[in-house]
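User: Fold this one for me? It's Delta-like protein.
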Amino acid sequence: MNHYYSLLLGVLFLVFSQVKCTGYLEVSFKSDFNLKSVLNVSSANNSNSRLVPFLVSPNKTETLSRIPIDFNETVIITVFVINQDRLDIDNATITSTFIPRRGLLSPLTVMYPFTGIKINIGCDPQYYGDQCNVFCCSETASRVGKECNSLGQLGCPVGKKGLDCKQSISKKWCKCKNKGSCISSFGKNLHERIQCSCPVGFTGIHCEREVPSVEMMSVYGVDPKKFEIGTAKMLYESVVDNEMVEVTRPHSSHLLHNLKINDA
Ligand SMILES: *[C@@H]1O[C@H](CO)[C@@H](O)[C@H](O)[C@H]1NC(C)=O
Ligand SMILES: *[C@@H]1O[C@H](CO)[C@@H](O)[C@H](O)[C@H]1NC(C)=O
Ligand SMILES: *[C@@H]1O[C@H](CO)[C@@H](O)[C@H](O)[C@H]1NC(C)=O
Ligand SMILES: *[C@@H]1O[C@H](CO)[C@@H](O)[C@H](O)[C@H]1NC(C)=O
Ligand SMILES: *[C@@H]1O[C@H](CO)[C@@H](O)[C@H](O)[C@H]1NC(C)=O
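Assistant: Here's what I get for Delta-like protein.
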C-alpha cells in the first residue's frame, strides 16, 4: 500500500477516534473462584459489539480498562462466565443495560460467582462533563493563568477565586449538598461564577441528585443431573453487598428478583 495513503488513513483514524471516543468504560471483577470469562459490550441500536476475554483468580481483582463507549447509546454489557471449580453450576450469564454517564456506577449487590464488580466510566484527557462532551484545553487555560476545572470550564484551583485566583471561596456561596465543593468558573468576558463541583455519585447544580448505580441480572446454567438443594441455597445466599462499591448509598434489599436459574 502507498505509504502516504496509509499515513493519511492513520491520521484520519486518530481524528475520528478523538471525535467519537471521548469516554471509556472500565470494569473490574473479583471472585472466590477460578473463572474464564468474556465481556461483551454493545449498544441497543448498533450491531457492533466488543468482546474482551479475561480470567479471574480467587481474591484477585481483574480490571478491564479503556473500553471505548458511545455516550449517545444505551450500553448493554453481558458477562459470560465459566466456573472452572464447579460442575453443577458451571456457567453464568450476567447482563446489565444502562445509560452511560461519567463516574462510578458499580451495582450495590453482586451475585455468584462474583463478590465484587466495579463499573467506572471515565473521560479521555481534556474532556469533562457527565457525557464527556465538554472540551477544555489545559494548555490554553494555563496560558491565561487558569486551569480546567471539573466542569470543563476555565477556573481557579479548588477553594480559590478571582482573576488572579488568590481570594478564598466561602462554602456558603454555593450551598452544595452531599459534600460538593465550591469552584470558580470564568465564562465569556471573564465573567466569574461560583458553582458546585460534585463528588463521585452525585450530580446536579447543587449536587442534589444521586447518580443511579447499574442493576445486574444473572442467569445460571445448571446441570439438572448434578444439581443439589445445597446448590440452590448457595445461589440464594450468594447475593451479597458488592465489596467493590466505592460510593456508599442506602439500599433496602438485595435484588433477589433478578436471580434466575436456567435448568431447562
Ligand atoms: C451525540 O448526540 C448529539 C446530539 O444529539 C450530537 O451533537 C453528537 O455529535 C453525538 N455524538 C456522537 C459521538 O455521536
Ligand atoms: C453481544 O451482545 C449483543 C447484544 O446483547 C448480541 O447481539 C451479540 O450477539 C453478542 N455477541 C456475542 C458474540 O455473543
Ligand atoms: C438509539 O435508539 C434510541 C431509542 O431507542 C434513539 O432515541 C436514539 O436516537 C438511537 N441512537 C442512534 C444513534 O440511532
Ligand atoms: C479469599 O479471601 C478470604 C478472606 O479474605 C479467605 O477467607 C479465603 O480463603 C481466600 N480464598 C483464597 C482461595 O485464597
Ligand atoms: C451452561 O451449563 C448448562 C448446564 O450445565 C449446559 O447445558 C450449557 O451447555 C452450558 N453453556 C455453555 C455455553 O457452556
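One thing worth pointing out: Residues 3-20 form the longest helix (18 residues).
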